[in-house]
Amino acid sequence: MPTSRISDAFARAKGENRAALVTYIMAGDPDLETSFEAMKALRDNGADIIELGAPFTDPMADGASIQKAGLRSLAKGTTLRDTLKLAARFREEDQTTPLILMGYANPVFRMGYGEFASAAAEAGIDGTILVDLPPEEDGELREEYAKHDLSVIRLATPTTHEARMAKVAEGASGFLYFVAVTGVTGAGSADPKAISGNIEMAKRVSGLPVCVGFGVKSGAQAAEMAKIADGVVVGSAFVDHAEKAHESGDFSSAPRGMGVLAQELSSAIKEVAKP
């Protein structure tokens, strides 16, 4: 079921002649209950896939917005197991929307790859993006994931050459996450024309749907990326709504704001016909 949920999501988007919308939030920011409501708001407003961030103390790939989100979540005491419980709660009422856990290898390694894979599958997680675990070092993890049909989703960048892309694609499944900028999440904005050739190469070499993320914040940016990719990933712009809610004390504003943004992004993507 897990991998098929992901492939089904891309098939539905392709059937509608559009790219998929992949949305990211940090679990437990501003709290777990609000995260649950945010997940529903994203789904109800056009998100095809939800990435659920697991907070970690040293998020090397993340910019200021997600770094602060992780710290707020950790301050609330959110753990990897809490993130899985949140996914399980969502999965009780939604058996269709793919859930991707995005985070770092240390907490997963500490739990144990086998125990984590079993717990993730039980919670309804479809795959993970562990940004600091390269292909050369995830063999044991992939073996455990294979027992539960979990996807190992890998990252590629504008500096990933073709030979390296083949290695990145080896053993990967679900989709390929293409980092549009050479930097951290939320940093700058990418030029679709500059990376269109990279995207085509990634599709050809991997044989997987390719989603573009990092630096996509608005409907206009999402529409441009939707012209060249199978999916568009937006994270920091959603996390910023959680920060505003945290600062105002009105946590209910986060799911509302995220829902409005998801609708904007989804509508913009749908207006762009795929070639």
What keywords describe this structure?
single chain, 51% helix, 9-stranded parallel beta sheet, globular, TIM Barrel, alpha/beta, 12 helices, 275 residues
Description:
Helix content is 51%, strand content 13%. The protein is of the alpha/beta class and 275 residues long. It has one domain: Aldolase class I (TIM Barrel, Alpha-Beta Barrel), CATH 3.20.20. A 9-stranded parallel sheet has the order 5-4-3-2-1-9-8-7-6. Strand 7, helix 9 and strand 8 form a beta-alpha-beta unit. Helix 4 packs parallel to helix 6. The longest helix is centred in the last third of the chain and has 18 residues. The radius of gyration is 17 Å and the shape is globular. About 2% of the residues have low confidence.
Give the SSE layout.
Layout (H helix, E strand, L loop, with lengths): L1 H14 L4 E7 L5 H13 L4 E5 L10 H12 L4 H14 L5 E5 L1 H7 L1 H11 L3 E4 L8 H8 L4 E2 L2 E2 L5 H8 L6 E4 L12 H15 L3 E4 L5 H8 L4 E4 L1 H13 L4 H18 L5
Parallel strand pairs: 1-2, 1-9, 2-3, 3-4, 4-5, 6-7, 7-8, 8-9
Helix pairs in contact: 2-4, 2-12, 3-11, 4-6, 5-6, 6-7, 8-9, 10-12, 11-12
- For the CA atoms, what is the radius of gyration? 17 Å
Which strand order do you get reading across the main beta sheet? Answer: 5-4-3-2-1-9-8-7-6
Largest sheet: 9 strands, parallel
Number of helical segments with 4 or more residues: 12
Helix and strand succession? HEHEHHEHHEHEEHEHEHEHH
> How far apart are the termini?
30 Å
Tell me, what's the shape? Answer: globular
Function: The alpha subunit is responsible for the aldol cleavage of indoleglycerol phosphate to indole and glyceraldehyde 3-phosphate.
EC number: 4.2.1.20
Protein name: Tryptophan synthase alpha chain
Enzyme class: lyase
